[in-house]
Amino acid sequence: xxxxxxxxxxxxxxxxxxxxxxxxxxxxxxxxxxxxxxxxxxxxxxxxxxxxxxxxxxxxxxxxxxxxxxxxxxxxxxxxxxxxxxxxxxxxxxxxxxxxxxxxxxxxxxx
Amino acid sequence: xxxxxxxxxxxxxxxxxxxxxxxxxxxxxxxxxxxxxxxxxxxxxxxxxxxxxxxxxxxxxxxxxxxxxxxxxxxxxxxxxxxxxxxxxxxxxxxxxxxxxxxxxxxxxx
Lengths: 111, 110
Hints:
The complex is a heterodimer.
Chain A: E1 5-7, E2 10-13, E3 19-24, E4 31-37, E5 44-50, E6 53-56, E7 65-68, E8 75-79, E9 88-95, E10 100-102, E11 106-110
Parallel strand pairs in A: 2-11
Antiparallel strand pairs in A: 1-3, 3-8, 4-5, 4-9, 5-6, 7-8, 9-10, 9-11
Chain B: E1 3-7, E2 10-14, E3 19-26, E4 30-38, E5 43-49, E6 56-58, E7 61-66, E8 71-76, E9 85-93, E10 98-100, E11 104-109
Parallel strand pairs in B: 2-11
Antiparallel strand pairs in B: 1-3, 3-8, 4-5, 4-9, 6-7, 7-8, 9-10, 9-11
């Protein structure tokens, strides 16, 4: 069974530039999560989707972050414009029941 | 605000030692507690605990939950260098949101 796929694995951009991350969840998993993980910290939830509906986006900084999951499968997380403090690993996870399976993450560096 | 606290933050032991990692929590509408192992990339699932006092075991790893005292422990016996990783504890609440602790960084010295 293929796991959660994320791309790119690494991204380096200059501040004020836009950036987008892509996630393909495990087939059949209706719930998709985007997390942010800073160095030395646990993952923090940004947004959770049930199919194509964002059911929890309370932690998403909506002034610069946006996400979509148009057909209830793949998802894209965008930052525009990126700031230095956005440097982190962005993890995508999917679940069918309670167990969440994580992708390898995208490590973003903002210069 | 939901809170998950792990201790110690880091631990260095010799191969063959036994370690105990701690996780305490304060959340509203507890559903389950999960342990993950994170090496250089994605967290990988270890255990999910929902009931007090029932030990879950997988090889040299075991975990137990105390819902009265609001904590869980993860034990690793006969540690190996491949056990070196960050161990994350997370608590799932009623709306399925996971709150993670900061993790315990375990280093096994050969």
